[in-house]
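Dig into what follows:

_____
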Amino acid sequence: MSNINKNRSALFNKKFFLITLFSLLVTFIVFLVYLDSQIRTTFDGKKWSIPSTVYARALEIYPGAQLSVKDLQSELTLLGYQFVEKVSKPGQAAIQGSKVTLYTSGFQFPDGHEPARNITLHFKNDHIETVNNDDGVSLLRLAPVVIGGIYPAHNEDRLLVQLDEVPASLVAMLVAVEDSEFYDHYGVSPRGIARALVANIKGGSISQGASTLTQQLVKNYFLSSEKTLSRKVQEALMSLLLELHFSKNEILEGYINEIYLGQDGPRAIHGFGLASQYYFRQPLQDLSLEQQALLVTLVRGASYYNPWRHPQRAQDRRDLVLDITVREGMLDADLAASAKKVQLNLGDKSSVARKRYPAYLDLVRRQLKRDYDTEDLSSNGLSVFTHFDPLVQSSAENSLSNMVSKQKKSVNGKNLEGAVVVTRPNTGAVIAVVGGNDARYAGFNRAIDAQRQVGSLIKPAIYLTALQDSEHYNLASRLNDDQYSLPLDNGDVWTPQNYDKQFHGDVLLYKALANSYNVSTARLGNTLGLPEIINTMHKLGVEQDISALPSLTLGAVALSPFEMAQMYQTIAAEGFYTPLLAIDSVSDAQGNMLTRYPLQVEQRFDSATMYMLRHAMQAVTHEGTGKALEWLLPDFSVAGKTGTTNNLRDSWFAGFSGDMMSVVWLGKDDNSNTGLTGSSGALRVWSNIIKQRSHLTIQNIPPETIDIGWVDKDTGVGSQKSCPNAIPLPFLKDTAPEIEIHCNQGVEKVLGWFKNILN
């Protein structure tokens, strides 16, 4: 009986073993099929999530262009040009006084290809005087500056290259150092494993790996970096499968584009193509032998061999890379010896790392989301062309930071912040955005998100509302600036005060705006009606809902600098509303146009009314609260408005020239006192930007429906031009006041008497 049980038990164990073995085999096959499917579908399709690249505007080069040698040098520096004594290849420039020779880099724009050209420029008085090149083209564009990217969640960035674009010497060094048997194995190297096993047994720990290039690619592309037996087995299986389906060249190209080679802030540098630009600011195919060797050095440890932090360590490893390649018979010994004599010569990292413009990129992302989803923006390699002007941005950043630094010495200067928005009046193009004092900080974007009381910046909307009522108001209308009290619905009484704590009696309408009188403005606004003022604000471009409170007339409404820029953009554009746009166009990875963002224009105010408002805003800058601009911008006509809120919490200035509109805000995040008025704070930042970057004064040409009449500057009564108190003001045709003041009436009578005698 016991033998029967033993036989049954043995049979059961055998069946159990076979079933278990079969189950394990099926599981392994299923797992293998899964791995095979993962490799084929992923590696054969879109291998990487390629970030969108965001470009600045392209700098145009032509005779007569307003551009200094200094500004051109700044632009070329951002583009990564090398400054040499004699140019010989694309990406080089030579500056000799007022003469600049440069070999431009070609670029594929959405509207066509701009070829590389060797050109010579001559400058005179901050203008390009002549443009000389071999093909006789007088108008050309530099490649646009890369100002950032829209990355996937893991913040990887790469510049894809094909294997035939990679120098053969770099491939040789990579194979010699990382996997000398690459062309002989099938994904896993038995000899490499045996060699590493012996070394690890002798060392008593895992001190040497045996990963082939294929295994490294699998680990980086498909797997995590954990060191477990199961992961190593999976890595080996996937490597064998990868070699089964793809050629050595395809695997090598994948490795060259995948490998991690450095860190630029939050941006991870992957692939040799981008690493070449990051470390040397040159295309991969233009690198010298020693530069190629340094990139191969970084494969073994981008942080450990960081050439800026550990230059000697990096150079020693670079030389070892060259020696190993010679030893493997893949590099001439004399070439290696010459390369080893060259120092790293990377320069300062700050001059190599990509400059970041987080506030502007934030605006770009928000506007792109109207037409593209996040996946498209972060993975499809789109090219986003914007209106961003790096030269204007630099002036805006420096002007703001200089003001903040200066104020730190004062009692109220601690923790002062600011924001700047700059646009083109004729197009609505946003050319610069500064989101805070630290322009590189990708945090709270004050230019777009800071909701602040706007103070007197609201007043042009009130006076525009009045001027639209031409039967009752013009620039010479007399407004009452005596004490004003308004009973409120809750039983309180609102009694506004002027900034100077004085009352000014009857004042002309344009003077009330120029001097930013609160009392007369509050009386005017509440007489016109708050709904009418809110309607004007909406027509000017303010989109958010606004509460109809009497204090609205003095700017008791919270808006962002960007919203104020939209409002003043319409005024700068003479009553034509154009949505503020950061983006010009978007193209796909092949250069095909996907979306163009054309100029959109809608006339919302008649030209005559807007002309009169702009005339009054010019008065702000030469006789009103902004009269400091008379000496800050001598002989340069502009228009604008200061803004100061209660307890000096906010300092504003918004204004425009003929080619530039800008809004500047200064304040503190905790809403405390800044010690600054609009004139003493924001106006100074604004004027510095305009002084550096604007080239055209305001062009306020009266339309045919406007007449110029002369009035007494105190009473608004019609006056002869020859009277000492007379000033010219624009009026709608046939509405100028009758002349009541005659200063030369007696002279006219005498002249008439003599005329009659002579006749």
User: Anything to note?
Assistant: The mean pLDDT is 87.
